[in-house]
Amino acid sequence: MESSYLVLSFSPLPAELIKTLLSPYRGMLDRDIEVIVFRNLGDRASLFSLLEKADVIIGDYTMTIPITRDMCNAMKKTRLIAQPSTGYDHIDIQACAEKGIPVANIGGANAVSVAEYTIMTALALMRRLIEAHSRTSRGEWPQWELMDRGAFELHGKIWGIIGFGRIGREVARRARAFDMRILYYDKVRASPDIEENYGAEFAPLPRLLKTSDVVSIHVPLTPETRGMIGEKELRLMKPSAILINPARGEVVDEEALARALREGWIFGAAVDVYSREPPTQDHPLLKLRDVNLILTPHIAGATTDARARIIQVTIDNVIRVLRGEKPVNVVNMSL
Fold first, then answer.
1. Is residue 193 in a domain?
2. How much is the average pLDDT of 129-144?
3. Residues annotated as catalytic (active site), given as ranges
4. N or C: which end of the chain has fewer CB within 10 A?
């Protein structure tokens, strides 16, 4: 038997910190834990040597270090890849499944944070809050102009949710407090009990886009969701509707969204994620001026509260598999 378990981390947390987070659970295990943080992909010999020895791998929450098929094939004893984020599109989950290695994300650890961000940006867009603040702070007084151009309540409107998982359901829970009608689209329809619990009605995507006043996206990036919202879909939306994307940048055609805002197909948009992060200065959304647009740097799920939960969920899963138990929040296979 090896003298210790090896936890290999691609995330930029110090090894000492990870070791400290794991230390309270030492009494539950039959041996010590060694933690190595490795981020030098140029040193392939060391990388593949560590992959062969790793019992558990912690993925990179910055998503700059991928886990490829070649890397997966080098794993000889890995019981789990624990990804400390919701997204996992930098990991070849199919290759991991073929190798019998479960990949787990953080489940709903940041669902509340993303849901609150979504509600916050919806309110800000409907009331043109960013423009109102910017112009007032410059000494302007656009009171009547902003009122004449339109500002809207959430009360009594229709909220369309694309992706009715943990985050989508948290959004529905909060939107109901504004007496909104909730529509949702998901590739798997929820049970009648869940629909009743959240006050949500299933709708095909075209109908959801045509009828909703607020559309928010909460799907992972998959071959099916890549480019899910393009020009055709944006043109289905009301000119008074807003779009919020805290999911993945590649789900939305960014060029089409920029045109929709510039030409007034929709009332506004909030974007927290981009097809390339950070976006370059020639990104179509960064070049827009005088439109109802909120841009944020992928922080929807990154509150201090959520980050603490994310770390705890990841550590719990690592300990779980080292004790011989099944991991939770697995995204690439059924256990």
1. yes
2. 97
3. 248, 277, 298
4. N
